[in-house]
Amino acid sequence: MADPALRLLPRTLGPSIDAALATFPVVVLIGARQTGKSTLVRDLHPGDGRLYLTLDDIDVRADADQSPDELLRRAPRMTIDEVQRSPDLLLAIKRAVDSEWVPGRFVLTGSANLLLMKRVSESLAGRASYLTLWPLTRREQLGLGAAGGWDLPFSEPVSRWREAILDQPIVEEDWEDLARRGGYPVAAHRLHDEHTRRLWFDGYVRTYLERDLQELSAIEHLADFRRLMRALCLRLGGLLNQADVARDVGLPPSTVQRYVNLLEVSFQLVRLAPYSVNRGRRLVKSPKVYWCDTGLALFLSGETEPRGAHLENLVLTDLLAWRERSPDRPEILYWRTHKGTEVDFVLERGGTVLPIEVKATARPRSADVRHLRTFMHEYADRTEGALLLHAGTETFWIADRILAVPWWRIV
Fold it and tell me: Helix, strand or coil for residue 403?
């Protein structure tokens, strides 16, 4: 159900949806439950006569299952929420699109990536544009309808980075406060104290465990699954070694692998892949693990205070929202050698890479950029400059072509 109080928050994905509607007959919007998909799609072009239906409505779902073709004839343009609940409806949409190609005819949303994409990819190949809605970015929460300023380092010469960043007016914020509230619209925008947020997160987890997961795959022991989520949230920003996790939580490795896959396809867990261009060093090939939302991650882990890994996670979720609205889909990776040299994020766009280090310190030192220096030396032909994001207030050149920037000036 769309929340009128949240309709005042423009989303960075809005223009991308408009562009897709002008080209494709079907636009598929996916993402975790409660990221604001329903609110966003209900506000699309309110004057164009678009009919909104949700398969959470028992009667609508019955009609979709029993007479899907008749359901689609109710209006020339339709938005259908939680479409994965009726596989037969997807086949009817395919038939409707094949009979008449009308850009923007259907907008479909779904929280369950596994079922949705499996059905859609089979029935709507070449007919649909797919977009993921991540939780609210910091700038969306500020009412700016944007992700962070990640385009700037790619569009400006390194010599102008500092000036261009300082020219952008953006408010300072305590990253720990942002980490605690996360980006789910209700928890981040409507609830203003820790107690009510914890109640909301508890209800969210219960719904996810007892409803969403059961539609994806049978989970015999929900307590085991929740224990795994806690263990993964405690490993935020670390390498995902499923054998180690299995040993710690007392589950078979095969079960851990299945559960991790479920967490990923339902948009809870984010696996960050390594930067893999081989330059003679032995590079770590395991993914790093992060969560879709820092507020939920803190709740699941039982931690009371955010750690540096949560600041990294905030940066990553902002990067994911930025990538989603970027037509060229930049790569977001990390870099680590077997000797422990690591760069938190490596952005790759058009043959250029931007290494980024994140430090939860207000006073970064030259020692904090030693891994960035190593990376820049290793990939000198691809790297023009680097960023060190920190928790302070100063923007300054901390080393040659490495700019130290307060995290809030970028995110």
Answer: strand
Instruction: Dig out the tokens for 238 from the structure.
Output: 């670390």
Q: 């969403």: which residue's tokens?
A: 212
Count of helices and strands (H, E) across the chain = 20, 13
Beta bridge partner(s), residue 54: 81
Average pLDDT over every residue of 187-193 = 91
**Could you give the CA distance from residue 375 to residue 24 in angstroms, rounded to a whole number?**
41
Dist CA 371 CA 344 (whole Å): 10
The larger pLDDT score, comparing residue 337 to residue 85, is at: 337
- The HSE-up count of residue 276 (CA atoms within 13 Å, CB side) is 7
For residues 230-269, b (16+ Cβ closer than 10 Å) or e, as one string?
Answer: bbbbbbbbebbebeebbeebebeeebbeebbebbbbbbbb
CA–CA separation, 259 vs 50, rounded Å? Answer: 38
Please report how many Cα atoms fall inside a 13 Å half-sphere around the Cα of residue 328, on the Cβ side. Answer: 10
Biggest distance spanned by C-alpha atoms of the chain: 66
Residue 389: band (very low, low, confident or very high) from pLDDT cuts 50, 70, 90 = very high
Residue that is written with structure tokens 């086949």 in the block: 91
Share of the chain above pLDDT 90, in %: 78
**What secondary structure does DSSP assign to 102-167, as a single string?**
-TT-EEEEES-HHHHHHHHHHHSTTTEEEEE-PSPPHHHHTT-----STTHHHHS-GGGHHHHHHT
C-alpha 201 chain-centroid distance: 18
pTM here is 0.93
Beta strands in 206-302 (DSSP E): 269-272, 288-291
Q: How many other CB atoms are there within 10 angstroms of residue 47's CB atom?
A: 5
CA nearest neighbour of 19 among 179, 131, 163: 131
Confidence band for 95, pLDDT divided at 50, 70 and 90 = very high
Q: Which residues make Cβ contacts (< 8 Å) with residue 119, sequence separation at least 6?
A: 84, 87, 90
